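Key result, reporting period 2: structure in, sequence out.
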C-alpha cells in the first residue's frame, strides 16, 4: 500500500521544540489532569508491549520528562528528546541515574545501527516533521527482531467518540491547559494535532514501507488513544 508524501508531512520542528520548552514545567501535571490519570496506565501498557523484545537496551524516543523511560526495570534505557528543557526535567527525576539521557533529533538519531532491542514512543510520533523518515531511523537503530511500540492519539473513528472528545477539548483541555501552562495556543495545538495525524491503518502502512510488520493494535480510553506494536524482521 502506498502512502502519499502529504500523509507523512508533520509540523515545523522549531515551533514544536519551542512549544514544549514553554509548557515543560507543567507538562506532567497537565498530563495527569487532562487524561484523568489514564496516561500513566497507558504508559505502563506501552512498556509491557516491548517485554518480548530480544535482550538489549530500550530507546524511549521523544522521552519528554521521562515518564516512560523511568518506569522500565531490568533493562538498560536510553531516553532521547530534542527539547533540552524537557530532558533537564527528566534527568532531575532520575535520582539514581538509571537512564542515559541523550539530546537528539528523531530525524537523525545519534545511535549506531542495530544498537537497541526495543523502541517506545509515547505521544511523539505525530510531532515528527517527516514521519516516514523518523520511522526509517527507528528501523535503522533497531536490531533484527526488535520491537517498536507507539502510543499515540489518532483521529477518532466513531462519531460518539468525536463528540465526547470535542466537548472535553473545548471545555477542559484548552481552558485548563492554557490556564495552568500559561500557553493556550499549545493546548489548542496538542489536541488538534491528533485529528490531523495518521489513522492506525495509515500508520501501519507507513511503518511497513520502512520494513516493519504490525504485531497488533488496540484502542485505549474512549478511542482517543491507541497502542500499536511493530516488529523488525530478520536482516539488517
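The corresponding designed sequence is given below.
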Amino acid at each position: 500500500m502506498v502512502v502519499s508524501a502529504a500523509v507523512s508531512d508533520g509540523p515545523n520542528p522549531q515551533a514544536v521544540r519551542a512549544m514544549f520548552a514553554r509548557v515543560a514545567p507543567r507538562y506532567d501535571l497537565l498530563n495527569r489532569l487532562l487524561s484523568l490519570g489514564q496516561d500513566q496506565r497507558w504508559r505502563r501498557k506501552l512498556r509491557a508491549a516491548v517485554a518480548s523484545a530480544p535482550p538489549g537496551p530500550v530507546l524511549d524516543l521523544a522521552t519528554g520528562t521521562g515518564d516512560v523511560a523511568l518506569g522500565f526495570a531490568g533493562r538498560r534505557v536510553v531516553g532521547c528528546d530534542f527539547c533540552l528543557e524537557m530532558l533537564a526535567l527528566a534527568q532531575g527525576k532520575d535520582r539514581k541515574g538509571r537512564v542515559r539521557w541523550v539530546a537528539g533529533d528523531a530525524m537523525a538519531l545519534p545511535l549506531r545501527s542495530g544498537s537497541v532491542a526495543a523502541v517506545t514512543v509515547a505521544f511523539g510520533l505525530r510531532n515528527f516533521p517527516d514521519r516516514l523518515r523518523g520511522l526509517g531511523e527507528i528501523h535503522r537503530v533497531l536490531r533484527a527482531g526488535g520491537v517498536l511500540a507507539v502510543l499515540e492519539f489518532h483521529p477518532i473513528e466513531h462519531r460518539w467518540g468525536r463528540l465526547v472528545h470535542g466537548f472535553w477539548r473545548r471545555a477542559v483541555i484548552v481552558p485548563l491547559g492554557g490556564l495552568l501552562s500559561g500557553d493556550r495556543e499549545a493546548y489548542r495545538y496538542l489536541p488538534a494535532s491528533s485529528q490531523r495525524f495518521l489513522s492506525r491503518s495509515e500508520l501501519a502502512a507507513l511503518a511497513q514501507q520502512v520494513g516493519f510488520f504490525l504485531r497488533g493494535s488496540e484502542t485505549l480510553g474512549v478511542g482517543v488513544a491507541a497502542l500499536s506494536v511493530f516488529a523488525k524482521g530478520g536482516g539488517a
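The CA atoms of residues 169 and 191 lie 7 Å apart. Residues 1-8 have pLDDT under 50 and may be disordered. This case is discussed further under Risks and Mitigation.
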